[in-house]
Specification:
Layout: H1 8-24, H2 27-42, H3 55-62, H4 66-82, H5 84-94, H6 97-120, H7 124-152, H8 157-179, H9 194-226, H10 246-261, H11 263-284, H12 286-292, H13 302-328, H14 335-358, H15 364-390, H16 395-402, H17 404-425, H18 439-478
């Protein structure tokens, strides 16, 4: 694996921490500690996935409409995904520690702003801004942990990537259970108190960002080993530290340009858009859907549905993470391309779930479980495929580019759903299995799932053919 040298920014952000860590830890002990710390950070990083817990208080206390709720959800998605291509590129050049520093500067203050806006009923635009910054801070914190884990153990891409992805999925369930404590409930009501939760998140993420900063230093340490930086120079001014050269940045740009020119990149990108966008919309509107879809789910609390979604998502992440690692390390199965087949299979539960909503089926808990399974599998397998195809050393840039898809898809799907809900569902009593207010939007989204499956299948064929050509050429050169 090719590593870039240490940039001046990365050196400035990590030097003193490296001095301290090398004085108190062995290299292997430091690697394990940083990996475990990154996973621990991910266990509490997914507060944005619990946004549906706060939609009812925002609607009742601030009189937000369903469209306004979805605009806030779109703001979260914009912050969470649109900045990732730039953040990923910077992380590849300057190390994940830069993302940890950005999350420390934005996470706590953003939740504090949201708390103040809610308590004093300030401008709706400020609430949108707060959650856009929360999304960007979440992206920085989570992506830093993901890159740290992937670059500490690059030989086990399936597990080193699915580990933080799984922990991030578990975090929604953990945070949901924490917010169910009586302290976080509104007085005289079963609804969650957003102000208390947002203040709690402010404190939590200041601490987590600091821990993430320390853990991400391990990537810099690995670079020092590659470039043979002598440990005895620690404690000096370290003027001899190797900084990244223009040639390194030019090589990174050439690799990234090749990634952008490959047709399969765009087929997978659109497949990801058709899958992730509607599922992000589902997470944002789970509380509202619970009141509309079918008849049996109306009495189920939203916290139970969020926990069920998180549990099914986490189970899927663990399963596909272990299986993809096995497939990738099994040369007889052409592992990195067999993972594409696994992705195809895991799209089916989501297709069934959205079809059930389109036909107004009453089993909302089943729908949540099906969509959660596909959500977890998709967000675990896509980065694994990207890392296997285009390399871990460029994962920040390549996977960051892919994250534009859920951002765009979430905004489009959320706006479409909100407009259709406001136009057809409010006050509507004419609901049958094949003709009710959500048949059109969820029927179209289910069709998008089917189209994504087709695009993944075509990309799978292209990957396999290119691999066969490469193997044939290698054998010819050896002979």
């Amino acid at each position: 694996m090719v590593q870039s040298e240490i940039s001046s920014i990365e050196h400035a952000l990590t030097h003193h921490i490296r001095v301290f860590l090398f004085q108190h830890f062995s290299k292997e002990g430091l690697r394990r500690t940083c990996f475990a710390t990154s996973l621990g950070v991910c266990l509490f990083a997914g507060s944005v996935m619990t946004f549906s817990l706060f939609t009812d208080p925002l609607i009742y206390d601030l009189q937000y409409s369903q469209l306004q709720i979805n605009i806030i959800g779109g703001s979260i998605a914009a912050g969470l995904y649109f900045f990732l291509p730039m953040l990923g590129y910077l992380a590849d050049l300057h190390g994940p520690v830069l993302l940890a520093a950005l999350s420390m500067l934005t996470f706590g203050p953003s939740y504090f702003l949201a708390a103040i806006v809610y308590k004093y009923k300030l401008s709706y635009l400020l609430m949108c801004l707060a959650f856009m910054l929360i999304g960007a801070a979440t992206a920085s914190l989570y992506f830093c942990s993901l890159l740290t884990c992937a670059k500490i153990y690059p030989q086990s891409k399936g597990l080193s990537i699915s580990g933080p992805v799984t922990a991030f999925g578990v975090s929604a369930m953990l945070i949901t259970q924490i917010t169910k404590l009586s302290y976080f409930s509104k007085e005289g009501s079963s609804m969650t108190d957003p102000f208390k939760c947002f203040i709690g998140f402010t404190i939590l993420y200041c601490v987590l960002s600091l821990l993430n900063w320390i853990a991400s230093v391990m990537v810099t340490v690995e670079k020092e080993v590659v470039f043979d930086t002598p440990e005895q120079n620690y404690g000096s001014t370290a003027d001899s530290e190797p900084f990244s050269s223009p040639e390194e940045e030019a090589n990174h740009r050439r690799t990234f340009d090749a990634f952008l020119k490959e047709p399969s990149t765009y087929m997978l990108l659109f497949a990801f858009l058709f899958l992730a966008g509607p599922m992000e919309m589902y997470v944002t509107n789970m509380g509202n859907l619970l009141k509309v879809v079918g008849t049996s789910g109306a009495s189920s609390p939203i916290s139970k549905q969020v926990s069920a979604f998180s549990l099914s998502s986490t189970t899927a992440r663990l399963f596909v993470g272990g299986l993809s690692d096995f497939l990738e390390n099994n040369s007889r199965l052409k592992g990195k391309y067999a993972i594409m087949g696994l992705l195809l299979v895991t799209c089916i539960p989501g297709l069934v779930g959205f079809s059930m909503i389109a036909t107004n089926q009453p089993h909302f808990g089943t729908i949540t479980t099906l969509v959660g399974c596909t959500y977890g599998a998709v967000f675990s397998l896509f980065p694994t495929i990207v890392a296997s195809r285009w390399g871990v050393e460029n994962l920040g840039s390549t996977w960051g580019t892919f994250m534009v898809a859920p951002a765009t898809g979430s905004v489009l799907a959320g706006t479409f759903y909100a407009l259709q809900y406001s136009r057809s569902c409010v006050g509507s009593a004419d609901n049958t299995s094949w003709n009710y207010c959500l048949t059109l939007p969820f029927g179209i989204m289910a069709f998008g799932f089917a189209l994504a499956i087709v695009l993944i299948f075509i990309s799978w064929g292209q990957f396999t053919r290119q691999n066969d050509k490469y193997e044939a050429l290698s054998q010819h050169e050896q002979s």
